[in-house]
Amino acid sequence: MIIDIGEWVFRQVVRQARQWQDAHGTVLQISINKSAMEFRCDAALYQDWGGYLAGQGLAPGAIIIEMTEAVLLDGARQVVERLRQFRAMGLALALDDFGSGQVSLACLKTADIDLLKIGRSLVSELGRDDAGLGLGLCTALIALAQRLGLKVVAEGVETAAQRDLLRAAGCDYAQGYFFSRVLPAGQMARLLAAQPAA
């Protein structure tokens, strides 16, 4: 059942991304979380994803597949194959919630990913610890990831102080309640329409 739901989510996200691109002239990146089970599935289940993406005319990297540290640690042959398959389709790959699991820094060097998402547990420490250890750790992770050619997203940003500290540390992107709660598609369309032209 999770495979069927994942297939439905993928198609809905691609369709929605295309609608927003057409309506607002903006190429957005939209992330889809995938479970470990979905990474271990037979390659045939994903055969038509590339054609579907191409048919919708989305730019490469417009859809990001997010995986947890557990998926990357799995290292199973199917997981590696799935990562290659997704990459060949033009999907971007992100390691989600980094810092909450056991992935070593050395693993980042060999992982074929585009984005590193610093977990909420690390971001929540920004501005709260007097010694600045949270900021030091986030700054080091940002610098390391960027040195490896990765973009960095900070998750769970809830305050202007966190945003400012991350910006000063060179973080590429941030997400969290400070910017917006999760929005239904209709409200997101209104938010996009209200943005000044780029």
TrEMBL record:
InterPro entries: Cyclic-di-GMP_PDE-like, EAL_dom, EAL_sf
Domain (EAL) ranges: 1-196
Any GO molecular function: cyclic-guanylate-specific phosphodiesterase activity
Alphabetical list of SUPFAM superfamilies matching this protein: EAL domain-like
Protein name: EAL domain-containing protein
Originating organism: Janthinobacterium lividum
